[in-house]
Structures are given as structure tokens and as C-alpha cells.
Specification:
- The complex is a heterotrimer.
- By secondary structure, chain A is an alpha+beta fold.
- Helices cover 17% and strands 27% of the residues of chain A.
- The relative contact order of chain A is 0.20.
- Chain B has 17 helices and 20 strands.
- In chain B, the strands form four sheets. In chain B, strands 1-2-5-4-13 form a five-stranded antiparallel sheet. Chain B has a five-stranded antiparallel sheet with strand order 3-14-15-12-11.
- In chain B, helix 3 packs antiparallel against helix 11.
- Helices cover 22% and strands 18% of the residues of chain C.
- Chain C starts with 5 loop residues before the first strand and ends with a helix.
- Classes of the chains: A alpha+beta, B alpha+beta, C alpha/beta.
- Chains in contact: A-B, B-C.
- At the B-C interface, helix 1, helix 2, helix 6 and helix 9 of B face helix 1, helix 2 and helix 4 of C.
């Protein structure tokens, strides 16, 4: 199945600093839960930042193949995973191939 | 070392109170992120790639066992069991939660530590020679001056919103172990022609986008006019530093654009005015501070001999142990660069172990170096073996000081939101390629530095071999530089040519070291051979 | 109740028109002047006796040039009102005060109580500056 190009919204949790992804109704730590954005990204950011549910939110390009979402830029792929040199601290501590997915 | 009196402690405590209030207002929504961001940066709290990162100040790289122990406890209590020692002698925690940061700072305050001005457009931590007070080549310990600077720069009301960050380094020897000329202000304690202690002031050095070596702005400054002179130097910068372009806002750009002579003229004019205002602390204050940096009670009967019959221990002594000014003593450098490890990182247990060793064997004192290692400044030679055994058991005895395995690397794209490329995996690959100890020692002193972006926190411009990570259409790419140097003979590295992939740059480095081995004469280091033969032979070998 | 003018002085506020620094050449009798961040406070030295009010503009609070301007004016003996105008937030009040400001005209209202609290943030100060506070080094050595 070929990947569909989409735009998704990401930011950090104000309290914990965790990387978060907009799921359409709330913020998840898992990039695969990110949903394609419509025209209302700016409104979502304004509302969610004002409500203290996110900080430093921004729109990024990504591809979606039905099961997983892959950010277009390497920096956001690192954000989606965690430090590639400390997979034990990442979201996929048991997957030795996780770091290879970054490049 | 300097210990806070009630005044110093009260200031740190007041800062914790202020920050606690600011965090509460942020979490309640009465401060926006835009308003809060510069305020949290002034307490070293960044929003980084994965979480909030907190940079704790270690003034002039000196701390005692109680403080070091607390740093280890904080890693366990507020972070994920480890921390990172930086190229400015500070320590960073990568996984801090905003709502816990006030409690963290309160804990730090109980041991006289803080995160004051470790970020933001203000005067940052003053760094110093990590062998201060221990090396025989010292004219004077620079740290009393550094402590005066710390106090003067803390919450300075005029200089809290400078055009850009401001970094000062100070040394007390002709041997520059602090990359002094690559700072916004560098100060060297010297003897003037009459044999009196004086300060030589350099202004306008730096790395980043436009690396520059600081020119001398004042040849001999009376030490008891240091504060007045710095007021003048900073005021000229605050008034005339560029504010239109973030990448041209450092003082090095101002000095370069108006010229060193004009900058000097403006500073002297301001200085003459400031001298009339009585801003200088009295000699008694310097004396009070300097007394706390007096030599510890060295044992005059400490034996000078070291039993080197254990070959691994002997290798470590030869590489990581330096001569001390006191007979029977030595300076130990603990490597935080194990083969294949993350440069500058230490676990909470390792941090507490180093604290315990320092308490027992180093007169309760440690140093952090800008090469991301830890120093025990005053160790009895007779105790070296026992110390080495403890370090070895904890993975802290890698005998690679100043060798190619002693890599300086910024956190890079694994941690830092400013980065364009990862630096740590590259450091690990280089470390593993050159893992063999004999091979490293054969390559002699070879300072290899990696930055993950142009901000140059890895000091790549000053590496004998420097690497700059760049983003080439979304793919990590690495530029190779040769011939940088950070000592008295400071120089800025030269790019070899087109960049490389991660594996490609490891191969390129290997080829460059082979050129050095082929061509070196006498006891030349890599950088000496490069300076003698030039880039051409290296370029030919690297690009084939 | 937030205010947009807070004065820490007992005298009445100047009612004279505030002349922009750039226009001083045409208004040599000015009693009130406004400095923008790039204006040279030193140029006011000959006028300090006649001035009742100097406004120092902070279009963005991150531009710290006005702190130097204020301190320079006080160092030259200016005793009139020194007013920080614009993007003035409670978190900078302490520094403003230490640099000689005795009045604040924030775009976003601040309460007088918040100003008083901000000025009391620091139990002591490390530097001697124009606010008359005794620096810590003087407390230590009398």
C-alpha cells in the first residue's frame, strides 16, 4: 500500500515536556495516532495552547500507510521515537531496529 | 573552594522563590509561553527534542563531594538515572518535568547550587582552567577572579537582556586549557612588566557560524579594576551589539565590524567614567574569596613513588594522570568516554562514586572539564591504584585522555532541537574504529570534536579533527575540518571539502590519521603535522 | 486593579509634551523626552537640569538597551522621573528599578502591589548601581 502524504500536528506537553501528536480529539505520545489535518490547524493550535494542553505546537509533513505515520523530517522522526542512542529510554525499548527507521 | 555565605545562599533561595512563582503562573495560564520562555531560560530550562532539559551551573567547573552527590541524586529523583557533563563545565538533565523543576532547584539550593543564567541572553557560567590550583605551570589560581565574576554577573540588572548570550573564560597559566581565546571575553592572569599580577583581557572570540579568535583589548589590567572594566566592556556591547540579526548578535561581530581599536577606545572611555562610580569590590573582598582557594593541607611526607607493576594501571597513569605542583600528589582525569559510549554522560551511580572518591582522596573537590571529563585535582600518588580499581569497576577508567578516543560531542539530534544531525552515534563509531589502545597512543594527542549543528557546542572549530553535522535535504551529512586548536596557539579548523555520510566520515578520518602517521616528524602531534604539510596531502588521501 | 502608569515618586507627573529624542534639535526647551532603544542617552547630558521626565521605550522587553540608558542618566546625576514605557512586565521591574527607573507605563496593566513585590524580590544585591542599595560586598566588609 503506498503511503499517503498528509499534514499532522505535533508539540510538547506543557507539564511533562513529552512529545505529543494531535489525534483529532486529544494529544497522544504515539505518532501512529496522529491524524491528517484539515484547514483548521491554526485554530486547533490556538485553542489547545490557550487551554494549556500543548506547548510549541506546529504542523509537519508526514506519510501515512494505513497503520503507521512517518514524519517527513528526520528531526520529527527522532522526536517520535526518543534518543536513538538510548533506546531503553525511547518509546520502543524492545525494538533494536527502531533506530534504523530514523534515517 | 568557595562556599556560600548567608548572602550568597539568600540570593539562590530568592531565585528559587521567584522561579517557583513564575512556574505557577505559567501552569495557571497567567503567563503565556512567549512571556515565560525567556524567564525559564534564565534558569536553564529548555524545551528540547524529547522533554524539558535543565542545565545546572557548576561555577568555573569546581564542586565538592556533597554537591556532586546531590547531582547524582537529582538524576535519580527527577530524571532517568543519568546526566550529561557539558563543554562549558556544566551538567544537563534531559528529562525534567516543568512542574517538578521548582522542587529540583530547591534541592540544588540546599547544597549551594543553581541553574542561574545557564541560558538566555545574559552572562553565562564563567569557565576556568580545570587544573586550577593544582598545576605547576600556574601563575595564579584564576578561580577567585571567576568567583568575583560569578557574583558580579548574577542578576546584573543592566545586562540581563543582552543582544545575545555572553561567555567568559579565565585562565591563570600560559598553557590555555580553557580555550580562552574562543570566548566572548577571555581573561588570562599574567605578570606585568613590573612583575605584578595583572589581567590580560581578550574580547570578541567565539565559534558558531563565524568562528573568531579574540584579540587582546587590554594588555595589563590591574586586577582590582576587573569589575569596573567588565562593566564598561559589557555596557558597550549592550548598547551597540547588533539586535537586528540573531546570527550577528555576538560581541565578536561588533568587535569585528567596528574594529578592535575602536571597541577598545569606547571601552576605555566608558571605563574612565565607571571608575568614578565606586563599583569595584574592595581588596578585602578579593582576599576573602582567595582565602577559600588556598591550598589544601598537602602532606609533605606523601611518597612520590607509584607502583606500576599492574600493566593496565600503568597505562592509565601514563595517560590520565598529570603532574601536580605538590610532591607526592597527582591530578587525575576520569574519562567519561568509554569505548562506544556516550561522551560526557554518567549514571547516577557513577556520579555518586566519583563524589565518594573525591571526598576520600581529593580533599573533597572535583572539576568538570570542557572536554566533558571529570578531574580529581589533588590525589596522593600512593592512593592512585586504589582509586583506579574503583573507577575501573565502574567503567570510568578508560585511559584515553586527549587521545582520539577522548571525543568531545554535543548531544546532537538525539537530544537537541537545534541540531541538524546526530553526533553521538558518530562518536560511538569513531570510538569503536579506534578502540585499540596501542593504536590510539600511537596517534598521540588528537582532539576530535563533533558538533551536530553550526552553533558549535561541540567546539568542532577547535578540534585537531572537527566534524560538523549538517542537514543535506533531510539526510544527515558530515563536514570534516582539520587543524583547529584551542590552546595558546589557538587556530580554527579548515574544511577538507565535500561532506560525508556517517560511515564515510569515519573512513575519511581514518585516512587522515594514516596521512599523519606517514608524514609525521619527530614528536609532532596530528595538528603539528597538518600545520607543517598543509591540507593538500590530507585532501588527496581523503577524496582519493 | 492593574494600572498603566505606576510612579514611585512623590511629585506630580510632568504634563509637558514628550519630545522624541530625534526631534530635540527643534525643541531645545523640552522638559520631557522619549528615548528609543537606539538613542544615545549621553546626548541628554547638557539637558538634564531642565528635564522633568525621560521616557525610555521598550518596544520589546528583550531589547535591553534601555537599561543602559537609564543607568547612564542616573550616573550623570539626573534626578527627574525615569519612566520605562511599553513592553514592561512584572518580571523585569526589579532590574528596571535597580537601573534607576522610578516609573512604569506598561502596555499590559500591572498592579502596584505586583510592582512593590517585584522590587522586594532580592534580599540583597551583588552589584553597586544607581538605586542606592548596598551591595553584598559592602555588607561583608562594612
Amino acid at each position: 500500500m503506498s503511503a499517503e502524504r498528509i499534514k499532522i500536528l505535533t508539540g510538547n506537553d506543557l507539564f511533562s515536556g513529552d512529545v505529543t501528536w494531535w489525534t483529532g480529539h486529544d494529544w497522544s505520545r504515539h505518532v501512529d495516532h496522529a491524524v491528517p489535518l484539515g484547514d483548521d490547524a491554526a485554530a486547533i493550535v490556538a485553542r489547545e495552547e490557550a487551554a494549556q494542553r500543548v506547548v510549541s505546537a506546529y504542523v509537519i509533513d508526514a506519510t501515512h500507510d494505513g497503520t503507521s505515520v512517518r514524519p517527513a523530517h528526520i528531526k520529527d522522526r527522532v522526536r517520535a521515537l526518543g534518543p536513538t542512542v538510548r533506546l531503553d529510554l525511547s518509546l520502543h525499548p524492545d525494538d533494536p531496529q527502531a533506530a534504523a527507521q530514523i534515517v | 573552594m568557595y562556599l556560600y555565605d548567608t548572602h550568597d545562599q539568600a540570593m539562590v533561595d530568592a531565585r528559587v522563590t521567584e522561579f517557583t512563582d513564575q512556574v505557577a503562573r505559567r501552569l495557571a495560564g497567567t503567563l503565556t509561553e512567549e512571556q515565560f520562555r525567556p524567564l525559564r531560560l534564565k534558569n536553564g530550562l529548555y524545551l528540547q527534542l524529547h522533554a524539558y532539559m535543565l542545565r545546572v551551573a557548576i561555577p568555573y567547573g569546581t564542586l565538592n563531594a556533597r554537591q556532586m552527590h546531590m547531582l547524582g541524586d537529582i538524576a535519580d529523583r527527577y530524571d532517568r538515572g543519568y546526566a550529561h557533563f557539558t563543554t562549558r563545565q556544566n551538567i544537563q538533565y534531559n528529562w525534567i518535568k516543568l512542574d517538578q523543576s521548582p522542587a529540583l532547584l530547591a534541592d540544588l539550593a540546599t547544597v549551594g547550587m543553581h541553574a542561574i543564567q545557564t541560558s538566555g541572553n545574559c552572562i553565562r557560567n564563567t569557565t576556568a582552567d580545570h587544573f586550577a590550583g593544582a598545576a605547576a605551570d600556574e601563575i595564579a589560581d584564576p578561580r577567585p577572579y571567576a568567583e568575583l565574576l560569578r557574583q558580579w554577573s548574577t542578576f546584573h540588572p543592566e545586562f540581563d537582556y543582552l543582544p545575545r548570550k555572553f561567555k567568559v573564560a579565565i585562565i591563570g597559566s600560559d598553557i590555555d586549557r580553557a580555550a580562552m581565546k574562543l570566548h566572548d571575553i577571555g581573561i588570562q592572569v599574567v605578570n606585568d612588566p613590573a612583575g605584578q599580577i595583572a589581567l590580560r583581557v581578550y574580547v570578541g572570540g567565539g565559534m558558531g557560524r563565524t568562528p573568531m579568535i579574540a584579540p587582546v583589548i587590554r594588555e595589563f589590567l590591574p586586577p582590582l579594576q576587573m569589575i569596573s572594566y567588565l562593566e564598561a566592556a559589557l555596557r558597550v556591547y549592550n548598547r551597540y551589539g547588533r539586535r537586528d540579526n540573531k546570527y550577528k548578535a555576538r560581541i565578536k561581530i561588533l568587535v569585528h565590524e567596528i574594529g578592535a581599536d575602536e571597541y577598545r577606545r569606547q571601552v576605555e572611555e566608558e571605563f574612565a567614567h565607571i571608575l568614578t562610580l565606586g563599583l569595584e569590590p574592595p581588596p578585602a573582598e578579593f582576599a576573602r574569596i582567595a582565602a577559600q582557594f588556598a591550598d589544601p593541607a598537602f602532606d609533605p611526607a606523601a611518597p612520590d613513588a607509584i607502583d606500576l607493576s599492574d600493566p593496565d594501571f600503568a597505562v592509565w597513569v601514563a595517560q590520565n594522570v598529570h603532574a601536580h605542583k605538590a610532591p607526592g600528589y597527582a591530578i587525575v582525569t576520569i574519562s567519561l568516554k568509554p569505548v562506544g559510549g556516550i561522551p560526557g554522560d554518567a549514571s547516577a551511580d557513577q556520579i555518586r562514586l566519583m563524589a565518594a572518591i573525591a571526598q576520600e582522596h581529593s580533599f573533597d573537590e572535583l572539576r568538570v572539564t570542557h572536554a566533558q571529563n571529570i578531574v580529581l585535582p589533588h590525589v596522593k600518588k600512593a592512593d592512585l591504584y586504589a582509586i583506579w580499581q574503583q573507577l575501573d569497576a565502574a567503567g570510568l577508567a578508560t585511559a584515553n585522555l586527549d587521545l582520539i578516543g577522548d571525543i568531545i560531542a554535543c548531544p546532537g539530534l538525539d537530544y537537541c532541537s537545534l541540531a541538524n544531525a546526530r553526533s553521538i552515534p558518530l562518536a560511538q563509531k569513531i570510538s569503536e574504529r579506534f578502540a585499540d589502545g596501542d593504536r590510539q597512543r600511537n596517534l598521540r594527542e588528537l582532539k576530535l570534536k563533533i558538533s551536530g549543528c553550526i552553533n558549535a557546542c561541540g567546539h568542532h572549530h577547535a578540534g585537531h579533527i572537527g566534524i560538523l553535522g549538517v542537514d543535506r535535504k533531510g539526510v544527515e551529512n558530515y563536514q570534516l575540518l582539520l587543524g583547529g586548536c584551542e590552546g595558546a596557539d589557538t587556530s580554527i579548523g579548515t574544511i577538507t571539502g565535500p561532506g560525508f555520510s556517517e560511515d564515510g566520515v569515519v573512513d575519511a578520518i581514518e585516512r587522515a590519521t594514516n596521512v599523519y602517521l606517514d608524514r609525521r616528524e619527530g614528536d609532532e602531534r596530528f595538528v603539528d603535522t597538518f600545520r607543517r604539510v598543509g591540507m593538500a596531502p590530507f585532501k588527496d588521501a581523503i577524496y582519493g | 486593579m492593574g494600572e498603566t502608569l505606576i510612579r514611585l515618586r512623590d511629585d506630580a507627573a510632568s504634563t509637558a509634551p514628550v519630545v522624541p529624542f530625534a526631534d530635540l534639535g527643534d525643541h531645545s526647551n523640552a522638559r520631557a523626552v522619549r528615548l528609543m532603544p537606539g538613542d544615545d542617552a549621553r546626548a541628554l547630558r547638557p539637558l538634564l537640569e531642565q528635564l522633568d521626565l525621560v521616557e525610555v521605550a521598550f518596544p520589546a522587553y528583550t531589547d535591553g538597551r534601555g537599561y543602559s540608558a537609564a543607568r547612564i542618566l542616573r550616573e550623570y546625576g539626573y534626578t527627574g522621573e525615569l519612566r520605562a514605557v511599553g513592553d514592561v512586565l512584572v518580571d523585569q521591574i526589579s532590574h528596571y528599578h535597580r537601573c534607576g527607573f522610578d516609573a512604569f507605563a506598561p502596555v499590559q496593566p500591572i498592579t502596584r502591589a505586583a510592582v512593590d513585590k517585584a522590587i522586594a524580590t532580592w534580599p540583597a544585591v551583588y552589584q553597586r548601581t544607581v538605586d542606592g542599595r548596598t551591595p553584598i560586598w559592602a555588607l561583608r566588609h562594612g
